[in-house]
Every structure is written in C-alpha cells, then in structure tokens.
C-alpha cells in the first residue's frame, strides 16, 4: 500500500509515496527531473549528477520547538549548502526541494558542459538522434556554448557484442549497461576499464567463458537503456531515422510471454519492436528474439495460391480442394498455436460442422519435441520462454489432441487429408539459425520421412521448401497484419494491433478455411 507523505517542491505542496524514488514520485506529479544514470529497474548509483537538486528542512525554534517563521509569517527553510542527487535522496515527510531554482539550473549547465567535453556532437549521423536523452537535455538544461578548447579524446568505435557496437566517444559512463547485465541478465560481462579521461566500458568475458563478444539475448535492451548513442545495434544501424517510424502499441509474437511492445513501422515493414508506453506497468525490457525477428514478416512471403508448388488462383485451387474434402473420410489439422483466439474459434466452429457431416476430424497442436515433453512453463531466460508460440495456452485449453506422439504420427499416416496451420512459417522457427534451412525443422523431416506432402494442404505465411512440396498452399496473413486476442503464459488475454497492411485479398487462417468451406457447401449437392 502507498505510504503518502507531504513534501514541498519549489513551494508547491504535494502528496507523494515515500517508498518511491524521488525522481519517480515527482514524475507522477508532472515534474521532470533530468537524469541519465537513474533507471527504475536498476540500483541507484548517482553517477551522472544531472539530477542535482537543493534540499532543505524547516527550521525549528529552539524555545517553542515549533517551526520558525519570518516577519511575514512564512515558515523558514534551512537549505543545505551542497546539492544532492535526486535519485539518491530518500523522501521524508515535510522535506523541501528546489528542482528549478537558478542555482540548480546553473549546476546542471555545468554538468552538461562536463559530460559533453569529449562528446563528438555528431547528432546528424547518430542512430540515437530523436530518442536521445543527452540530445534532449543539452537543449533543455545545457548551455549553447562551451569553454572547452582542448583536443577531445578519440577512441575508435568497437564491436563488443554479436549485435552490439560501442562508440566510446559518446559514452558518458552512466554505468546503466553494466548494471543491466549484472542485475537483470545476471551476467558479469561489462565493466569500466582504465581511469580518468581514459575510462571506457569494455567487454570482460565471465570466468570460464570463451566468447570474444557479448552474446546474450538482450543486446537490444542494452541499446535501449543507453541514454546516449554509445551502444548501437548493428543490424538496425543507419536503416532509418526514428521520426520516420509509424508506431502502434501491440504485443510481441515471439513466445508465450507476449510482452507488450511498440512497433516501429516504415514502408509497411516492422523494423523493430521497442519497449511499450508506460513501461513501469507494461515492462521495461524485451528480448532480441522477438525484437529483431520482425523483418521476417515482410520477406519471402507467400502471396499466391499454389498447387504442387505452382502458382494458381483461389477460384481454381479452392474448388479442387473442395473435391478432395468430399473424397476424404478422415481429416487431421496440425498446428495453430500461432493463430489468434478469433481464428482458432472460427476453425473450431468449422471442425464441428465437418464432424456433423460425418467426417472424422482430429486436431493436434503439438508439432515440436518440447511440446510433447510438456515444457510449456520452462524459461530460456527471465523473459523468453521455451514455448515460442504466441497462443499455445489458448489452444491447449480448447483441444486435447492425441494421447501420445506415436498415436499422432500414426494418425498422420492414416489421414486422408492433412491441413497444416502456419507451422512452416517465419519467424516461428527460432531454433533454426537460418530460415532458408527450413528442411532442418523437425516437422519438415517428419513429413519427408513419412511421405505426407501429397495429401497435405498448408495454410502458410511464407514461401519455402515446404510450400514447394505440399499438395496445395494457401496464403494467410502474418501476425501484425491483423488485430487479434492472444492468451499469455499466465492466462491473461492481450490484444495485438494491426501494424502492417496486408496484400489485397489476403485472409487470416480462419477466414481462408471458411472460404474453402463455402466451396464445400456449394458442391455438397453433387455428393448427395
């Protein structure tokens, strides 16, 4: 429960939660205190000094033991002679603070001048421009001129991670990256080296590690928390200016955690995910697996109907599939854990219709070994789950599937028609280093081994070796081309936003099966 106390900020009386950090408590009241090193998810170190404030307390009359007052009856405040860092100042009842006095403004100008001594001032070519705290505070609280006339240090840019560069000249040594890796990721692989003007952030391999580069799943988060343009992700470097992006609040497709994210879209392509609005409530960090796999949504797309790997049209393909449907006695649906609740419900409704017509219809959602092992709640790290499908939790609630992997494989052999729902699609093949190697996927190998392609219809988002081999392939929308509901690992319903515009006529999995069923219904009289 909040423990509210009364404090005074620049003469304004406020009620704040004394358990919160002062910077966060003032932010809730609309008062912004500049800060670089402070981050709500990291321990306080007070290194940047840009959050300096004046702190005072009420003078107590030694005789009356009451607050002393001046000739005008105003309470007398005794101000500390030294500044204090707001991030490291505990909130106490009755405290007085100055965050915008002339003395504070002059101190912040001095701090900014010091921080920019070695900075190259290269905003026009920096990827952080437009979302850089140093840039913002330089305009807001800095001075337009500098007294520094000496030669600036010049340390070459360095690659310190598999997807991470460090520009030492821009670094202000706020220590955020070191604390993030140590306290959040749990790896001691970044540290300060050297002293004084030569101090740099360097990669320091953990004991026993042979890695020459930082190689964890949160290199994008390191670039996020860097308040300047010192840490940069190599795979998004120089690809776009941040103000060119269209943004939506959505959820990540990458695993059953369903982290809330901000989509960065340009030219109908998601360049990256970024942390969401209101990160205090929705989470500060997202992993690289989800963040950087978004480009797959716009590459190698299946945008035409295929019959045995050859392009065709829906008006030619769907009637043929309707004929096959009527000839088939047993149907087997495979996959579906990537689809929204709305599409799953549509497909379940169709399954019930088909069963009512006398068809034997089964549905198995477990298509990977980890699913059969029941590793739904197993974590890869503090955010990423082993279950890397966005809606497996909902589908598990809706259908039971087969009692064993062996019985499922027997059913694959016995089925007259197999419908695979988006199982051979990027970016869900996370365990494959290169998506071009779809043939390495467990399900692909299984279909090859059992020669199942001749009776398999794929509902797929991407064109690949699987769509080339299948009896028929029907194009469907990718995750960000449709709004939908998904159930996360905790059972919480979350909404995805439509961030991309689909090709004209492209349908979701539930819609395209419904369209197929329309042809089935039209042809039913011929089979009476």
**Annotated CATH topology of the largest domain:** Rossmann fold
N- and C-termini, Cα separation? 68 Å
Radius of gyration equals 29 Å
Number of domains: 3
Question: Segments where pLDDT lies below 50 for 5+ residues?
Answer: 430-434
Strand order of the largest sheet: 16-15-21-20-19-17-18
Based on the structure given, which CATH architecture of the largest domain is correct? 3-Layer(aba) Sandwich
Q: How many strand segments?
A: 23
Largest sheet data? 7 strands, mixed
3D architecture notes:
There is one protein chain. The protein is of the alpha+beta class. The protein has 3 domains: 4-112, Ubiquitin-like (UB roll), CATH 3.10.20; 120-129 and 153-293, Alpha-Beta Plaits, CATH 3.30.70.20; 298-527, Rossmann fold (3-Layer(aba) Sandwich), CATH 3.40.50.740. Helices cover 25% and strands 20% of the residues. The strands form 6 sheets. It has a 7-stranded mixed sheet with strand order 16-15-21-20-19-17-18, with helices on both faces. Strands 1, 2, 3, 4, 5 and 6 form a 6-stranded mixed sheet that branches. Strands 7-8-11 form a 3-stranded antiparallel sheet, covered by helices on one side. A hairpin with a 5-residue loop joins strand 22 (484-487) and strand 23 (493-496). The model is unreliable at 430-434 (pLDDT under 50).
Produce the secondary structure layout.
Layout: E1 4-9, E2 12-17, H1 22-28, E3 52-58, E4 77-79, E5 84-85, E6 96-98, H2 102-115, H3 133-140, E7 158-161, E8 164-166, H4 176-185, E9 190-193, E10 200-203, H5 219-225, E11 231-233, E12 246-251, E13 260-266, E14 269-274, H6 279-282, H7 288-291, E15 305-307, E16 310-312, H8 314-327, E17 330-335, H9 341-356, E18 360-364, H10 369-372, H11 392-398, H12 405-414, E19 417-421, H13 442-449, E20 456-460, H14 465-469, E21 472-475, E22 484-487, E23 493-496, H15 509-523
Helix pairs in contact: 8-15, 9-15
